[in-house]
Design a protein that fits this description.
- The protein is mainly β.
- Helices cover 10% and strands 38% of the residues.
- Strands 1-2-7-6-5-8 form a 6-stranded antiparallel beta barrel. It has a 3-stranded mixed β-sheet with strand order 3-10-9, with no helix packed on it.
- The two termini are 12 Å apart.
């Protein structure tokens, strides 16, 4: 298991309205996320994380044809999260929209989960029970989820 600590960050505010439309489509192919809260936790991890092989990848979902013509693809990775760090872990998922500006920063990830009471600035820890490799490059260390 790989565990990575991070800090809760303020998000862009779009997920709370977008997930209302997106989540039912995602849950059609990956039903375990159907009861997630309609919002994300934006977590800035202490190290970069790249998900090469998600647990689920959607087909293109046409949820906002004005801004995402042809649909948008979403990757989902099962994790467990302590939010805040030290609290009991709960099932959660990295939510990786392919067209999101968050993808420009490999330390910033969105997490969907049941409603959790956390505040901006609090630390949390994600746990990944999948093969991961740490690439300790001096200029660009990264953890790769295979």
């Amino acid at each position: 298991m790989t565990s990575i600590t991070g800090t809760i960050q303020k998000g862009f505010g779009g997920a709370s309205k977008n997930l209302v439309t997106q989540l039912p489509h995602i849950a059609e192919g990956f039903p375990e996320v159907k009861d997630c809260f309609h919002g994300t936790l934006n977590v800035e991890l202490e190290e970069r994380l790249l998900v090469a092989s998600p647990d689920h990848r959607t087909k293109p979902i046409d949820w906002d044809s004005a801004n995402h013509p042809g649909g948008e693809v979403f990757d989902i990775l099962r994790i467990r999260i302590e939010a805040p760090t030290g609290s009991p872990t709960v099932a959660a998922w990295l939510y990786i929209p392919h067209n999101s500006d968050h993808r420009k920063n490999l330390r910033l990830h969105e997490v969907i989960a049941p409603r959790l009471e956390v505040s901006v600035g609090q630390t949390c820890t994600i746990h990944i029970d999948r093969p991961c490799h740490s690439l300790p490059y001096r200029q660009f260390p990264i953890t790769l989820v295979l």
